[in-house]
């Protein structure tokens, strides 16, 4: 178990979302994990493109992408409620590991997604 896996289990191991994730992904093959993670990265890349095309986080284009992100998470990992989504949006900017990874798509993408999620959830 990686340090990341240990941290996740410590923070969220008792939650319904964690349990659902464990059940939903138990049968995932290496190829399935690659497909699911590539899909997530594709959504993040769309946010970067949206931002770079001059759209604001509260634009209809960005809000559609928030829904796409939420749907991807729900279909592939666990039910992503608006409450969970709002927490993810905060984590994308407060946890440097997430911020750095997301900003690989374009500098400022994590902040853009976080603001878009905040708008969506309010």
What kind of assembly state do the chains in view correspond to? single chain
The CATH superfamily name is: Antibiotic binding domain of TipA-like multidrug resistance regulators
CATH architectural designation: Orthogonal Bundle
Number of helices: 7
Average pLDDT works out at 92
Largest sheet features: none
Write a structural description.
The chain is mainly α and 122 residues long. The protein has a single domain (30-121), classed as Antibiotic binding domain of TipA-like multidrug resistance regulators (Globin-like), CATH 1.10.490. It has seven helices and no strands. It has helices at 3-12, 16-25, 30-52, 60-76, 82-94, 96-102, 109-121. The protein is globular, with a radius of gyration of 14 Å.
Question: What is this structure's SSE topology?
Answer:
Elements: H1 3-12, H2 16-25, H3 30-52, H4 60-76, H5 82-94, H6 96-102, H7 109-121
Key attributes of the depicted protein:
0% strand; mainly alpha; Globin-like; 122 residues
Give the gist of this structure.
The chain is built from seven helices and no strands. It is mainly alpha-helical and 122 residues long.
């Amino acid at each position: 178990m990686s340090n990341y896996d240990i941290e996740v289990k410590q923070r969220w191991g008792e939650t319904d979302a964690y349990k659902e994730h464990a059940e939903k992904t138990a049968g995932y093959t290496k190829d399935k994990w690659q497909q699911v993670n590539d899909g997530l990265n594709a959504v993040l890349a769309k946010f970067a493109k949206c931002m770079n095309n001059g759209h604001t986080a509260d634009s209809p284009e960005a809000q559609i992408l928030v829904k796409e992100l939420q749907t991807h998470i729900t279909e592939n990992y666990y039910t992503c409620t608006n409450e969970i989504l709002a927490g993810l949006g905060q984590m994308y900017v407060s946890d440097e590991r997430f911020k750095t990874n997301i900003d690989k798509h374009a500098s400022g993408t994590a902040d853009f997604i976080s603001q878009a999620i905040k708008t969506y959830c309010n």
